[in-house]
Amino acid sequence: MIYCPICGTANRDGSKFCNECGARLVPQEGVHEKGHTKCPMCGALNPESNEVCSQCGARLKPLVSIPPEELPLEGPAPFIKEAGEVKPEEEDFLARLRETVGEEGPPEAEEVFSPATPEEARQVPVFPEEIIKEIPEEEIPDILASLRAKVREEEALFAEEEEEAPPEEMPRVEIPSWVTGEERPPEEKAEAAPEEAPEEEKPEVKAPPEKPPEVEVFRWPEEEEKPAFAEEEIFKELPAWEEIKPEAEMPPEEELPEWLKEAEEVKPPEEAPPPAEWLKEVELPWLEEEKGVEAPVMAEIPPWLEALRPLEEVPPAAPPRRPIEEAEKEEEGILAGLKGVLKAQGAVAIPERPAFSEVAEVPIKKDLLQSFLKLAYTRSSPPSIKVPSRRRGRRRYWLLYLVLFLAALVPLVVKWPPMPVGSPPSPPEVRDFFEVVEGLPSHSPVLVAFDYEPYMAGEMEAVARPVLTHLKNRGCKVAVISLVPTGPALAQGIWDEIAGSYSYGEDFVNLGYVPGREAGLRALASGLGEAVKYEYVEGKPLDSFPLMQGINKASDWRLVVILAGEPSTILWWIEQVGSLPGVRLAAAVSAGLKPYVMPYYQSGQLEGVIAGVPEAAHYEDLLGSPSYVTSFAPAQALAVLIALLVILAGNLFGGGG
Amino acid sequence: MKKVIPTLVAFITGIIVLADFLIYNPLLDQVSNSLLNWALLVAAFAFIVGLLNVLIVHFTRIIKRERGWPYSIVLVLAMWLVIIFGVLDPRGPQGPIVSWVFRYVQYPLQATLFAMLAFFALSAGYRAFRRQTVDATIMLVAASLVFLGQAMLISEWGKWFAAIKDWILSVPTVAGMRGILLGVSLGVIATGLRLLLGMDKPYAD
Known about the structure:
heterodimer, A: alpha/beta, Rossmann fold, 6-stranded parallel β-sheet, two-stranded antiparallel ribbon, 39% helix, B: mainly alpha
């Protein structure tokens, strides 16, 4: 982690800039690598060919300025029409036009004229007007007719302008030097001033109608060329200069515009207004402690405001700053007294502290300002940020894992706590399962489906064992089958452990794996021979086993027991096989599947249900020979209790997260 | 034509099997059983296709030296060893080598991985199973009672907690689950009809 020197935010290792405030985390390198250009903005090294920085996009090479005379001319498009663009109806007209013009002819098409200014564009001979006027109206195409109309409009416009144009003796308005930006030499100014003053006093200079005073009429330089007003309009608005008497002349200062008068009337600033009352109460600790200035007299502070006053603290003494030249001198070690051994680092990279005098001008309330000043004055290092310790979190979870492991292991080793026999009573679905098996006649054929994978074997074997034990005790003929490829091997292993010595093919047979899921089950329901041809262990035909004699369809089994670890398989059995008449189903499933199978138990489609290790323990209890499941059921119960306590602790104490 | 023929085959097959489910007719039953046998053959052949696919994927990883390619070598070698010994042994999958591999390699590995789920579930419950909303609080209380019904199996007080647990699992849980199953069944009927009528053609993609 890299901590930002400005805001203290923790950033990833290798970060160059702070994710929070964008401050630089890696000091700028002062070395320029050969063949690289250092960005002036972010300091990143870029290849020399880069024009902009690859990091921040700042320009690395200055833009090259092109002199105006080298710039390409830009203006209206040349008035050229290429030969290919001439319309067929215009061709004849243009041919006759060439003949008419004769030697004078129209301007050659190769002479491309690109006017640089609008004035030049106006002077371009768009088309010889005399030629246009000589052509009869009916022979002129539309394009030239519109051109002629335009020419006439322009002629009319120019005629009007000539009539309204001011006379040649119209005085040109002199532009003040402060407008044009030109500075007159001081001699000129000095000469001009005495000349103007007496002229104003002379009565004949007062106001000749054709020479209005320069100050009264002002135009911007752009308007100078073209006359904006007719002469009469200008003089109509002017005052009658003959009627103005000398004693009624306006003083020079009154001729100034209004805004200029206001500017002159501005007086020098008075003393700063007294600070607000709330600002007087602000304590300035640096004034008291560093400069020795007496604090202002404290006003009466209300109790609620007094409560907000920050505690007085002595600020840490700032280390005295030495000039860089002095700092370069070594004070300790063998280099003591030498200068320039290590170059002292300047204070460029140190962020500036806020200027308190500026902050004090911010119009905020006294308490906020006081707390802010105190915070800014006493803070000498970035705030420490609490980063949650990953190691501590891991340790906490390892502790939880250890507790769970011991809760499951210790009861298995020390055989404690004992499982109370007969308490609590078995659930009704477990009792029903037991009664169904108990009610089977001896030597009844029973089909057991091992539909779970090896990863579920820890729980499912605990459920399967008491059921198979009960069937064996009842003298049932058991055939096992599976919808998962590993099911037959699991079934064979359990039956070998339970039955001990048995006659394969007479007491027990392994029908193996049935592919096709629902389709396989549907074929099994229609006829056993359709789904299974050979048994699993010896690979013999099913007819060769005494157990399989007389078994052709699903209803020939006196009971079908489903050992399912997943909801899909038990639903397939119920839908494809359990729906046939005469088929009895019972399910022994993992604890998590109980909600899935209970609706079918309540509807009668399943005649009994065993779910999970606790109910398997109940089943063993009903059998009257608690052994396998009862030996580890207390361990599981204790582990469940630990899990419950951990979850409650997480809720009460807010751990983790 | 490319879409019509698969749709027609699917429609006829589905109608025959569905009719055999509802109507008893010896001829219909024989045709339906034949179709189901074909389905089993296709499903078994899918294993061979899957085997080839696994080999192609892992051979590609080995040749290209992709990440974890040594594990692909282990997988391919183990797979071929089991297949060869299972085919050559006259007892098939019940032979000693294949049985040993299943009993002492596959079984413990899968069971171990699943057992670790208890630790993950514990840490997840510690961190996330919080009473942040009313729904979460109800769920937390119900789960705690079911946990107690399981855990108090070892106690004399267990019958009280077991009764509460059985009620929760038999009444409110079954009520919700029954509604879900009914909805799923209606969805299965609708999907089956769409497949039969050719409105959905997943086989034609």
